[in-house]
Design goal:
There is one protein chain. The protein is an alpha+beta fold. It has seven helices and ten strands. It has a ten-stranded mixed beta sheet, sandwiched between helices. α5 packs antiparallel against α7. The radius of gyration is 17 Å and the shape is globular.
């Protein structure tokens, strides 16, 4: 394993990241890297080479080969709140994956069980802005058998640990359609603070105009948020 601040190289050339436990950096670790190392990390993001792993789930870079398995877990009702149309076939989902992989500042993950590799859903980093020390987490959905259990807190613990402790970012944003109360409740349970609602901010896949509810976690709040997520994983009913 390489230096925790920059990630170590796995045997496939990707970056495998452990969960570090030092004090939080005072500045973004991307700013503290050499220019060559920072450029390398941006390339890792752009080429979808980042993997994150914990005891409950692992986050692998999403690939078109995941499309059929992911598509079979979705339906129009589950897709509610997304701004893109429900992909009506495995081929359509593969096209969605290709678009995610091509989008600058985005790295999308397939969420799998750490024990047996079973696919549980997907999540993403996006709008990574290193010079402003911020990123957003979203485009998250899980198959119904994994709603309300350990999957979401485990995946978010990996993502937030990477954002705050590995990259030393100042802010992680999260957002959802304000009508999607299930998603808003899940975001609040993470410990994210509501920031307000942007009116008529999104056009849903069905053409309806909706509001976007914004939330965030900032670096000063991260220790408390981390403790809450770890407690939820120790006691899933919490």
């Amino acid at each position: 394993m390489g230096d925790a601040a920059t990630g170590g190289h796995g045997p496939d050339g990707g970056v495998k990241v452990a969960v570090p436990r030092p004090g939080l950096a005072r500045r973004s670790s991307l700013h503290l890297m050499s220019p060559a190392r920072a450029d390398h990390y941006i390339r890792v993001v752009s080429e979808h080479e980042l993997s994150l792993a914990g005891p409950e789930v692992r986050l692998d870079p999403i690939v078109p080969g995941d499309a059929e398995t992911l598509w079979r877990m979705t339906d129009r009702e589950l897709w509610f709140g997304m701004i893109s149309p429900w992909p009506a076939s495995p081929a359509a989902y593969a096209a969605r994956i290709a678009a995610q992989r091509a989008r600058p500042g985005t790295i999308a993950f397939t969420v799998r069980s750490a024990r047996d590799g079973e696919v549980r859903g997907t999540t993403s980093f996006y709008e990574l802005v290193p010079e402003q020390s911020r990123v957003e987490v979203g485009s998250t959905w899980y198959g119904r058998p994994f709603w309300g259990g350990r999957t979401n807190p485990a995946a978010k613990l990996l993502l937030l640990t990477h954002a705050f402790e590995t990259l030393g970012l100042n802010r992680v944003g999260l957002r959802c359609d304000s009508r999607n109360t299930r998603s808003a409740t899940a975001i609040r349970r993470l410990g994210a603070k509501p920031e307000g609602v942007l009116r008529s901010h999104r056009i849903a896949a069905d053409g309806s105009v909706g509001d976007t509810a914004y939330f965030s976690i900032i670096r000063a709040e991260w220790p408390e948020v981390r403790a809450g997520l770890e407690a939820r994983l120790r006691h899933p009913e919490a």
